[in-house]
Amino acid sequence: MPFAVTLRVPFRGVTVREGMVIQGPRGWGEFAPFDDYSDARAARWLVSAVEAAYAPWPALARSAVTANAIIPGVDASTAGLMAREAIAESGCTVIKVKVGSVELADDEARVVAVRDALDVTGGGAIRLDANGAWSPEQAIRALRRLGAYGIELVEQPCASLEDIAEVRRVVSIPIAVDECVRLASDPQAVSVKEAADYAVIKPSTLGGVTASMRVAESLGVPIVVSGSLDTSIGLATPLAFAGAWPDLPLASGVGTGRLLATDLVEQTLVPRRGSLPVVHPAPDLDRLLVARDAVPTDRVPYWWSRLKRAWHAGADRAVERWLRT
After folding, report:
1. Which residue in 284, 234, 227 sits closest to 255, CA to CA?
2. Are 204 and 48 in contact (CB under 8 A)?
3. What whole-number distance in Å separates Cα of residue 275 and Cα of residue 256?
4. Which position among 96, 98, 193, 308 bears the catalytic label?
5. Which of 263, 261, 296, 225 has its CA nearest to residue 30?
6. In the Cβ-directed half-sphere of 94, how many Cα atoms lie within 13 Å?
């Protein structure tokens, strides 16, 4: 069933999050690839949704996951307000800040606002995410300037592994790669050790929890877990991975429920006292129907077509393989 939920603030140009939910004997899964995802990449997301609905997840190593909050590319005043809310209401002491604005001064103002909010309440760490927006020269300049504000790590400073490796040789801030893994045609074949100190694993984009375990093992660097701007239904997948992965040195990016204005469940999954329980929720029927009716008329056939294309772009073969195991 297609759905549409709204966001509190724009997130990388997105104000409405669309997707589909799938029900199976083990629960609910979410298929919500972004519009710019190819059919092959969307196929991995569909496998993840089918896994959530039909297949068992690995055994848990922990029942709750430490979460970071996230601040989109908003103005400094809004960033400070969102940071204070995340600290006071969710207990988050690690906050990821989107950077890569046209003007470095805008990024710095956003980071300063978040640093001030953390320091007033006892301190905490800032994580940056540039989504590959910088050239090596821009990244080096930006990180030298922003490094004064207590940066835990920076995610995907440049688009390519080669450019990221160049930055890593110069700056001291730890680097994590994200897009270089999840957008690769074969994530297990990506070699990140020369470019990164960490790898970001977004299980919904990699074919689900079990497939993400294989990817994480192949990368050979510490893992940071993250969601993909999911509803509370979709957030169950990264939570299941984070709950099962044996070693999580850093907070996981599962605090995105705070960005949702509407959701598919009665109580949106948001951190409390800095963490989230590992759960697999079912949608609230009334909210699911509201979200179904919120999908624009022309987008309903789009999503059914997207589902069919993703299935034939590789999801069918992947599901067939794990059904045989």
Report:
1. 227
2. yes
3. 12
4. 98
5. 263
6. 22
Identify the active-site residue in 96, 193, 202, 308.
202
The answer to whether the CB of 223 falls within 8 A of the CB of 198 is: yes
- Per-residue pLDDT tens digits for 217-246: 999 999 999 999 999 999 999 999 999 999
202 catalytic, yes or no? Answer: yes
Check if the beta carbon of residue 108 is closer than 8 Å to that of residue 73: no
* CA nearest neighbour of 114 among 92, 131, 130, 134: 92
Model confidence pLDDT, tens digit, residues 286-310: 999 999 999 999 999 999 999 999 9
Cut 0.90: pTM above it: yes
Angle at 276 between CA 197 and CA 118, to 5 degrees: 65
Is 98 tagged catalytic?
A: yes
Distance CA 33, CA 29 (A): 13
